[in-house]
Design brief:
Length: 459
Amino acid sequence: MKDYYDVIVVGGSSSGSYFARNMAKQGFSVLIIEKDAAEKISSGYDIFHMSARERNSFDLPEVKPGDGVYEFEYKESFSYSALGNYPKYGDAPVIGMHRHEYMLMMNAWARKSGAEILYEADFSGLVYTYGRISGVRFRHGGVECVYSCRLVADCSGKSAVVRTALPDDYGIETRPLTEKDVFFVKLRYIKFREPQAKKWMKSQFYLYYKTWLAPCGDDADCILGIGSSLGYDNGDRVYEEFLKNVKIPPFDVVKEELGTTPYHRPLYSFVSDGFIALGDAAWMTKANNGEGCIAQLPLEDIAADLGGKVLKREKYPTRELLWKINKAYYSGPGRDAVLMLAALSRAANHSLETNEWLFKNDTIFADKILCESAVPKPLTAGDILRMAGNLIKGTLTRKVSGREIRFLLSGAVRGIRIYLHYLRYPSKAENFKKWSKKSAKLWKKTGQMSDWSNTDSGR
């Protein structure tokens, strides 16, 4: 194995494999360094879900029954109010897969395109030449290795081991995630005691509790998942509240899995000299459900396309040359993502009665926000304004608390302000400092979901 590559990717899970594959396809020499052994990669959760439409749109490896990766598929999903009423319908087919096995498939997919993978290679630092990144240090087989490259991609997940090791003045945010910036996820694999309960084996989402049920396979019927802010204890309180208000048939818990997922606005900038942050390391997530695997791919497509053009044309990818990646993302999919994240930041902090009214009147909790569709239905600023009108109507007719409506309206208004601000994302790095200062002020006023979490109820 040589010690120089065009691109070194730190992290070999979904984000790293996808980016490495797309860069290798363009003819670049690419090395993935992955801290875990192949038999342990992405083994925290067993089952994960992916819509068939999204799999196809990103040309991800296909799975099929009997391959050891595929587990099941369903074609309908429903989102319900706090008491299980007013279902919202999604018609996007979803595939359930074994996560570890699928990551091995993605590793093989990247290798087939020309990327190399080094397992049990633990990142230990960066190499700089004249103050700019020129390589990485890592330990492998008890030996400290130093490899040179033109571009380092941090795909190391929530730990963001490369980004957080950068100097504070390197032009990109370096702070790690805190407990306020993630969802604490507990998955309970459950098996119903009564045969007639099989009708519950469908995809169901209860946003009021940040709780979902999804088909599972193997030794369980469903996964009952809870995503909570500020710790697993909060999630346990939500679990008890959910079981009290939503009458699901008796079941036994077969096993439990714990994990965290980012729930935070994406980085203001993903690039700097010889560097790019992607996936969880860049705080990428879907605002409506906290899922990150697919949420990260639009940025990666942009990064591979524009970053590849820079590497073909220039000897070294400076921050200024890579800046078009930021601009392209926040002029398209990123702008829509921050709109939804900001608009939903306060959406979970309301009473059960208000939740019922919101679902009944298709306000905030509408199909296009809560459910995946076979044909994408992006949330628009017009949708936010229409929902704001319904909230005002609810206040005037005294169907809901004026205080709660004002709070929800403030979230919608702040979402639109952030959306408009991202429309003015700077075309050049030299204008970024002023833009990011205003961004910080807007996001501070908007807050994030953990700011409004009730640690008594857990929501």
